[in-house]
Amino acid sequence: MSSPDATAPPTPGALLRLAGHALPPRYARALARFRAGPGTIKVDWALDGPIPWSAPEARQAGTVHVGGDDSEVLDTTLMHRRSGLPDRPFMLTGQQSERRNRNLVGGDVGGGSYTLDQVIFRPVPSLAPYRTPLRGLYIGSASTFPGGAVHGVPGHAAARLALAESRLPGR
Question: Which pTM does this prediction carry?
C-alpha cells in the first residue's frame, strides 16, 4: 500500500481508496466531502517499557492528558480558533504500541474536523454510520461517531453492528 496523501481525508479517504470502485457514487461523494481536522505535533517514542507514572491511575490508562484541569484543557483546545497557539498547551500521551498509523493524515489525530456537521454526521449522514453500502464492510475509527475523543467507542460500535447484522436472516 502506498503512503497516504497528506491532503486526503482520514479514514473515509482510506475507505475510498480501498473500495471506492464498488461504492455507490452518492456514498463515495459523501466520503470525499469529509474534512480533516487541525494538525498537532506527534512524536513517537519507542520505550523499553511502560511510562513510570507516579499516579497509579495514569499507569493503567490507555491515554493520559498532561496539563491543567478540565477547564484549562478545554480553554487551550478552543484558544487556537481565537488567537493561534496557546500560551499553556497540554500534552496527550497515548500508551499503545509505536507502529505507524496511516489514519494520522496531516497530523490530524482526531480523525477529521469537529465542525458541527461532522460531529454528528461522521463520516456521512446515516443512522448507522459504521455500515457502508457494501455488505459486510464496516468502518469504525475516529472518523465515525462519536469521534476520536471517545477512545475505542467507534470501533466497538462498528463491531457490535457487524455482529448484530451477521445474525439477521439472509446475511
Answer: 0.55
What are φ and ψ of residue 143, in 5° steps? -80, -5
| Tens digits of pLDDT across the chain (171 residues) | 344 444 555 688 889 999 999 999 999 999 999 887 766 776 777 777 778 889 898 888 877 888 888 888 777 766 655 556 667 777 878 766 575 566 667 667 778 888 888 888 889 999 999 999 999 999 998 899 888 777 788 999 999 999 999 998 876
CA distances from 22 to 2, 28, 69, 88, 115 (A): 20, 9, 47, 47, 29
Which amino acid type is present at position 170?
G
Kindly state the cell numbers that stand for 120.
454528528
Q: Residue 129: name the closest of 116, 112, 115, 141 by CA.
A: 141
What is the amino acid identity at position 9? P
Distance between CA 164 and CA 156 in Å, rounded?
Answer: 12
Residue whose cell numbers read 491515554: 63
